[in-house]
Design a protein that fits this description.
This protein has 14 helices and 15 strands. It has helices spanning 21-36, 62-69, 89-103, 126-140, 193-203, 221-238, 249-258, 264-282, 302-309, 325-335, 338-341, 348-351, 363-370, 377-386; strands spanning 6-11, 43-48, 51-56, 75-84, 110-117, 145-146, 153-159, 163-166, 170-171, 183-187, 207-214, 241-247, 288-289, 316-317, 389-393. The strands form 2 sheets. Strands 1, 2, 3, 4, 5, 6, 7, 8 and 9 form a 9-stranded mixed beta sheet that branches. Strands 14-13-10-11-12-15 form a 6-stranded mixed beta sheet. Helix 3 (89-103) crosses helix 4, helix 5 runs parallel beside helix 6 (221-238) and helix 8 (264-282) packs across helix 9. The longest helix is centred in the last third of the chain and has 19 residues, at 264-282. It binds adenosine-5'-triphosphate and magnesium ion (MG). The site of magnesium ion has 3 residues, from loops.
Amino acid sequence: MINFKSFLIKYGEIGVKGKNKFIFEDALVKQIRFALNRVEGQFKVHKEESRIYVDTLSEYDYDEVIEALKTVFGIVYICPVVQFEDNGYEDMAKKVVEYVGEMYEDKNITFKVNARRAKKNWPMDSMEINRELGGEILAAFPEMKVDVHNPELLLNVEVRKHINVYSKSIPGPGGMPVGTAGKAMLLLSGGIDSPVAGYMISKRGVELEATYFHAPPYTSARAKQKVIDLARIVAKYSGPIKLNIVNFTETQLYIYEQCPHDELTIIMKRVMFKIAEHFAKESGALGLVTGESIAQVSSQTLQSLGVINEVCTLPVFRPVIAFDKQDIVDVAIKIGSYETSILPYEDCCTTFVAKHPVTKPTHEQIARSERHLEEKIDELVKTAIETVEVVMVEA
Ligand code: ATP
Ligand code: MG
């Protein structure tokens, strides 16, 4: 295996952003640097000729670097690249043959050379480079065969400021670099769905802040730690998350005392949304994010979602709204949150849940019940907001 000194970072959608392209590229560079902070070694991340490169300046662990880069939204492919000075064709051919020799132990493979010439004054055009290099490779390794349609080895040779040789493209996560699409407030619980929802929104370039409602002593310190751990897993992809931990006990007990129990979940969610929206507006977040999915539970029927939603003026984004549970679980496994999410815990919504919650609440019905809260609810919400505990969570 070659000890690669550089990685070429390929990005997709950013490429089509026209005049604003540099904003996306700069955000991507920043996020790559951020992800590499977790990896031992020194790295230089830089733009050159509309491309992003990660140069390694010290010893490093290849797998760790790839793992870190795979968490950076905006990256479509990670290509370990051999880069050298342009000293003309002879020198290039020698190095390309060396590359193939070292990179592929088993030479019983088909290949194709894919040359690109960014320097238009270079003496050979890309067709000539393909042909000549193909010939040199066949001469050096007679077991290899050319296949121009479906080669096992696609050997990319780029003549730019430097010469780049690469043949491996490791898929990145795709999406857009975090920080290019504003900020949103994730309602993060200890379940499977909300961490996945946060990951998905963040994948589109949205920075995250989060709010968690706990109800000590009905929910334990372990349940709270679990949410912090989940935030840390999401932060691996999204960057640091400011987590607001709201003590919801008094509010919840009051709702429990005053309102019909089959409506508790709906009314509690409405208050949770209002508080989360307060923090969102305070910090410039442009929407709320939840892990709700249609019909998963009684509070996620279209009627319930509608009645919960109406307390907010900010848009509520629900990226897993049409996902089956298994589809959500698949993403949770992929991003590494599943194992933590399935640890046993108490949730403040389930502690007080009724046996037969309403599934078709109406606005009038809930508004009528909430009238019983008028005396104390504003004060309780105010206290909940004022006593928030803020934790900065980093991967
Ligand atoms: P999850 O798996 O994310 O917990 P869920 O399927 O258990 O979701 P609910 O408990 O009905 O569904 O919650 C729906 C959404 O409301 C959650 O995805 C989350 O966004 C938000 N939510 C629920 N409980 C809390 C909480 N204690 N703190 C913050 N947000 C919460
Ligand atoms: Mg839950």
